[in-house]
Hints:
Elements: H1 3-22, E1 36-43, H2 44-56, E2 80-81, E3 85-91, E4 100-105, H3 108-117, E5 121-124, E6 127-130, E7 133-138, E8 141-145, H4 151-161, E9 178-184, E10 187-195, E11 199-203, H5 209-219, E12 225-229, H6 231-238, H7 245-249, E13 251-272, E14 278-298, H8 301-310, E15 328-332, E16 336-341, E17 355-360, H9 363-368, H10 374-382, E18 383-391, E19 394-401, H11 408-411
Antiparallel strand pairs: 1-3, 1-9, 2-4, 3-4, 4-8, 5-6, 6-7, 7-8, 9-10, 10-11, 11-19, 12-13, 12-17, 13-14, 14-16, 15-16, 17-18, 18-19
Amino acid sequence: MNKKKLIVPLIVLLAAALYFAFFHKDKTLKFVPENADMVVLIDMKKLTGQYISSLITHPSKWSGSKKKDQKTISLKDSGIKMPDFIQIFHLKDTKFSEWYSVVELKDLEKFSAYLKNNQFISKGKNLFQKDQIFLKIIGKHCIVGTSFLAFDQINQSLSQSSQKNTLNADQFIDNTLGSISFITGQKIQNFSIALKADEIEIKNTSATDHFTAVISKFQKEQHFLEIELDAHNVKKYARFFEKNIADSTQISYLKATAEIEQVNDTIISYGYDDNFNEIEKKTVQKIIQPNYVIDLQSSVPEKAWEYFQHKKWINDQGQFTVIPFQPNHIGRNDKGLTIRSTRKPIALSPNLKESYIYIRNNPLLVSSLSTLTSMEKRILSDIDYIFYGNKADNYWVKIKAKNGVLPLILRW
């Protein structure tokens, strides 16, 4: 056969293979229940393409810097059918910390081996747990969550709606790596997720110059935490702590500044000597202690004060007990309430008349989180700062990593 005649069919086959491997996507979202109020989508083919393009431009990673344990089972060989879009969701009337996802299984035996290899503990009835991750195998599907409380509800919801599910990825994601969507009735509010060389962006606007200017002001300071929120943002985020707290206190503005430092903490205990005389023992340990000031403004400060007293958040020493780092002092003024740490008082930063949360990474923070794994500590150490900004209907979250030789997709 003439070799030249084979070239065109081979090119067509190669193009078709590349198209189905990287561009053709099943956009039907089969695993998002009707009562989901938040949905996170990750475009796995776009993520794979971004990984490959980054790998090509960084030859140092071609051979691999670490030898993998031969006994370790990779996710690719776990028996999971990898979807074109990973679907993670939150359900109405559940805790904000409860998130779920559903995956299809193509090989139950391989998946069982994967769970054993990753030290998941069986809780019976096909329920497994590792740390704060729960899994439940139901037929050819597996429900994954940070809680197991809604597993039965999710299974029932999906089995009832599987035939009439009309959700499509295009409703949530618009040619980006990922998205976070808030669902209210028939309304869907989408925020794109972008993974760049040394940062992750979550936003619903391309106009971010205003927020960048705010960040540049904080780069000149060394505070660990800066917060300034208007009434709209106070009400929105207060719900994470208590549903009606914003309405009950009439707080319309929050401003906070905080620093952290390592201090010596003396622990006094008592024992007895050989003659049964009581002796005092002093032990000094190093702890991480924040220094902070929080300004809460309210049109009716008395109402906020009475609410805090009713909740027993103010003790007899005038301390605000909701903040576990003592000692502090809470006081009233004409505009509202102020909470200050008393060990080393600091001043509030100037008001910018913006709405933002800025958290600067600090080595002391990482060292104090003893429950984190080595990988989690490494990722956290790599972060420079986290910023949230809101102006009118524009929102922007930026997770900025430290500059590195490799892009984030190859680092993490």
